Amino acid sequence: MGIQSIEVKGILQKSKIPGANYVINPYVGCVHGCVYCYARFMRRFTAHTEPWGTFLDVKADAARILDKQLASRRKPLREEVFFCSVTDPYQPPERRYRQTRKILEVLLKHEVPVSILTKSDLVLRDKDILRQFHGATVGLSFSTVDDRLARILEPRASLPSRRIRALRELRDAGIDTWAFLSPFLPGVSDLDAQVAALEGAVDEFGVEAINTRGGNWIGVEKTLAGIDPALPDRCKTLSRDPAFWKDLEHRARRLGGEHRMTMTGFYRH
Ligand code: SF4
Fold first, then answer.
1. What 3-state DSSP class applies to 143?
2. How many angstroms separate the alpha carbon of residue 133 from the centre of ligand 1?
3. Does 115 lie in the same domain as 21?
4. Which residue, judged by its Cα, is nearest atom 8 of ligand 1?
5. pLDDT tier, 230 (very low <50, low <70, confident <90, very high otherwise)
6. Pocket test for ligand 1, best of 28, 30, 181 (most atoms within 8 A of CB)
7. Which residue, by CA, sits nearest to atom 3 of ligand 1?
8. How many domains does the chain divide into?
């Protein structure tokens, strides 16, 4: 694993993600190495030739740069800042580099609202600081709730069972939690098991379909073929069938109701 420090001029970026006007990515790359990661396109903007998931650039001095960026604004920033769009804020090296924590401290000082999405229970480390924000939200994402399958699809992320425990603990601490069933892989992800496992851990969840037309499909196809040679075709055929998604959306809404949760978004590509 190659980890290096890089210099950046700014850390707060404008975003086009629905519901998030600003985004912060404390790292370039993500060592979780999920086979379906769409953020692998980021390699194009770096000098990295190594496979996605095997390198990480740590944005040096990010917290100080952000402090300067926020202090120099004419009006204080009161729009929500989202962590992260092309990396995971709580991937294992965060334990050592504490980039996310240091950035959160700056955002708290400037009273900027935050929203976090991660695949790691390391987020629990920052429960103390997240509780001090007004209305911080924390989402954990799941392509599956099967720990064994997750080890294949998301080799270095926290196991789903640990993520669910993290959601419960955050919720007990009074932090707003939600789950993102993303990416949903037809023929692989199990909606019934996912929604049932999340009961009591979240009030809201969203679903996002796998994008089989993106560059990330090559890795997914290879991995699924290693599980069952028939799986890639099945997954691809179902994901291009509008009736499949219509039925899934309907079932997700119904299952959510049965397990005392609301589905707040259903995203297709
Ligand atoms: S955790 Fe997110 S950013 Fe990291 S490899 Fe997985 S999908 Fe990509």
1. coil
2. 25
3. yes
4. 37
5. very high
6. 30
7. 87
8. 2
Same domain, 123 and 162: no
Give the amino acid at 205.
Answer: F
| Domain finish residue from 110, 135, 160 | 135
At 154-199, the pLDDT tens digits run: 999 999 999 999 999 999 999 999 999 999 999 999 999 999 999 9
pLDDT at 44: 76
pLDDT in the model for residue 163: 98
Contacts of 189 (CB under 8 A, 6+ apart): 143, 144, 181, 183
13 confidence band (pLDDT: 50, 70, 90): very high
